[in-house]
Amino acid sequence: MNATKTKGFRISFFLIVIPVLFFRCGTARLEKALGPKDREFLSIARYTITSEERKIFLKLPPSERKSFIEEFWKRRDPLPETVANEFKEEYLLRIEQANKLFGEGGNQGWLSDRGRVWITLGPPDHRETYPRGQSFYGFPVEIWHYGFYQIYFIDRFWNGNYQLDPASAQQIAEITRVQVSWNQPGGRLFQSSRAMDFEVRMDRTAGDRALIVVSLPYSQIWFKAREARLETVIEVKIEIEDAAGKKVREDDRTVEISVTPEELKDKFDRTYDLEFQAEVSGQSPFTIKVTVENKTENKKSEKKLKFDF
Fold first, then answer.
1. pTM
2. How far apart, in Å, are the Cα atoms of 62 and each of 59, 240, 298?
3. Which domain holds residue 267?
């Protein structure tokens, strides 16, 4: 077995666009009338263009299609204030990667089943390859892990053309369903810093002492698959200042979170809570800054809140 590990997987979830995995051809006559550049655009955009956008594009006069293409990518740009279009760059990069990785079998890699899934769902968290099958009489197979989901590709003709196992189509549909909020054009997927959402609560316990609770939704945590478990390391830092800007408390904690896929399913709508005891004195209102860093993802999130105490 050759196991290749790639990026971590955000269980909220991480992926590219709502994949149009099985879109229909239709309007073939209009397509045949397209010029080379317009036909190339429709081909490249096949995994992100909606059926409605496609219909509009085909009905446009040739003179208006260039403007449509520019607007098409602009609508998907998550950071329009920057020069780069992060969505378009990532999308085209994945096409290039798919061509390099899955070009065997006489097909263009990005048009193969593996290429299509790579582009629409992104690189898997963990990829297993069995070029001689998992058993003596088995077909060559690849298993891609997206968190606790597994996608199977099988080379039934031993020619390098791995086809998506029909049973995995439902898994892709489920991943897509959960990922919708991240995959919309202009969504958070391609932002340079995806913020983990979390909640902070500060309660007085006795005298000048306070209980600070940082609640991390399991649905927002980026895990990596290791063996049969999903694991991550999270660091939480808190800083408290009084109304005069004087720092009155500072603390940090690093925790390792390890769950099985079954446990994560049960906890998906719950939170992982970290509690900090703090002595708070000074002039109210107080400002608390909480920084959460997912060491697996190497991303930080920060919140500042004011409390009367």
1. 0.53
2. 9, 61, 46
3. 199-307
